[in-house]
């Protein structure tokens, strides 16, 4: 049976085009209170979970699922404070170098700048094939952006209490209220989809060898990787690891190319200051000197905790499914 996803998150997603290129050191959007208007907030809907099975699920959700989400988010926030400037300076440098290239009146100088941009700073991965560092830095910047956007979405779905809404429907069925079997099935599935889509999907943990085949250059809603927060932050860690590997191999080439290209900038009507952005980008890598940076995107404990809480909730969902006569092949909880 083809399962339907009950959450239409695209309408809530933060469009990539609206993500700021200049990432400040202030708290990211996903940390802001979710009351965008000045209107008085409506009274929060009350939920009343009465049955032992649904109470157990609620307890796991409140004390384990939310805690895992908070812990992963805090770990990422520390990482972001340390490495966010790398993406920021890369974006600024690309913009400024493009502006300078268009200002050069001597064709040879203009072409030199455009060649450098194409080989090292292009926004098309097909242009960056000859330099692995440039390629992985570009893709790393995209996955970094992806995590920010997805965290915004996940924060929203937690705030809107979608999980509790479906849990209430299941509880109402167990209490003998007029909830038909089809509605029960959809809510049971929605609970499982919520956890797999937003918290962790153990069937879609990215491996290092998968990175080259992951599509992250298109709109995030068409990406072929998991956007569950445990999965995605772990994948960012893999991209970071690969980017650092090629940084150690090729950064000196990048720096030499930049310095030689900068000598070709003779026309600068707008007084663009660009060398300090390269220096700031380079300085970000001083973070590698820290023995204990205080974050670890590849920490396996997040996946261990995620699998444990998923298995606990899954066993309860399966019991409710079986007790209500829903066939396993229709609702397998994979």
- Unreliable residue stretches: 1-27, 33-37
**Tally of DSSP β-strands:** 0
Round the mean pLDDT to the nearest integer and report it: 88
Order of secondary-structure elements: HHHHHHHH
**N- to C-terminal distance:** 13 Å
> Describe the biggest sheet?
none
- Beta-strand portion reads under 5%
Structural class: mainly alpha
Radius of gyration: 24 Å
Overall form: elongated
* Total of DSSP H or I helical runs spanning 4+ residues: 8
The helix content is: 55-70%
The domain tally reads 1
Structure characterization notes:
The protein has 334 residues and is mostly helical. It has one domain. Helices cover 58% and strands 0% of the residues. The protein has 8 helices and no strands.
Describe what is shown at a glance:
The protein is mainly alpha-helical and about 325 residues long. The chain has eight helices and no strands. It has one domain.
Any chance you could write out the topology, listing elements then pairs?
Blueprint: H1 52-103, H2 107-121, H3 132-159, H4 162-174, H5 181-199, H6 229-262, H7 275-284, H8 301-323
Comma- or semicolon-separated keywords:
334 residues; 0% strand; disordered N terminus; mainly alpha
């Amino acid at each position: 049976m083809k399962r339907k996803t009950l959450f239409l998150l695209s309408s809530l997603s933060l469009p990539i085009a609206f993500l700021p290129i200049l990432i400040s050191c202030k708290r990211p959007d996903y940390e802001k209170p979710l009351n965008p208007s000045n209107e008085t907030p409506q009274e929060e809907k009350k939920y009343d979970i009465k049955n032992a099975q649904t109470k157990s699920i609620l307890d796991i959700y409140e004390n384990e699922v939310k805690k895992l989400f908070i812990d992963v988010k805090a770990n990422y926030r520390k990482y972001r404070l340390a490495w966010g400037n790398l993406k920021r300076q890369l974006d600024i440098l690309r913009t400024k170098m493009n502006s300078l290239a268009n200002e050069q009146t001597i064709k040879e100088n203009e072409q030199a700048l455009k060649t450098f941009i194409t080989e090292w700073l292009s926004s098309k991965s097909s242009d960056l094939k000859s330099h692995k560092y440039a390629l992985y830095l570009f893709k790393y910047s995209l996955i970094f952006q992806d995590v920010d956007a997805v965290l915004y979405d996940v924060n929203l779905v937690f705030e809107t209490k979608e999980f509790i809404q479906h849990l209430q429907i299941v509880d109402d069925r167990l209490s003998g209220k007029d909830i038909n079997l089809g509605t029960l099935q959809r809510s049971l599935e929605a609970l499982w989809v919520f956890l797999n889509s937003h918290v962790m999907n153990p069937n879609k943990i990215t491996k290092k060898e998968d990175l080259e085949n992951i599509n992250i250059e298109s709109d995030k809603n068409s990406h072929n990787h998991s956007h569950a927060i445990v999965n995605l932050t772990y994948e960012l860690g893999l991209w970071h690891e690969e980017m650092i590997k090629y940084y150690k191999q090729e950064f000196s080439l990048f720096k030499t190319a930049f310095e030689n290209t900068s000598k070709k900038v003779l026309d600068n009507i707008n007084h663009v200051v660009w060398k300090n952005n390269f220096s700031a980008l380079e300085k970000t890598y001083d973070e590698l000197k820290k023995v204990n940076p205080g974050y670890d995107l590849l920490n396996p404990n997040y996946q261990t905790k995620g699998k444990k809480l998923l298995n606990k909730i899954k066993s309860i969902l399966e019991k409710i499914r079986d007790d209500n006569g829903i066939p396993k092949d229709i609702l397998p909880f994979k």
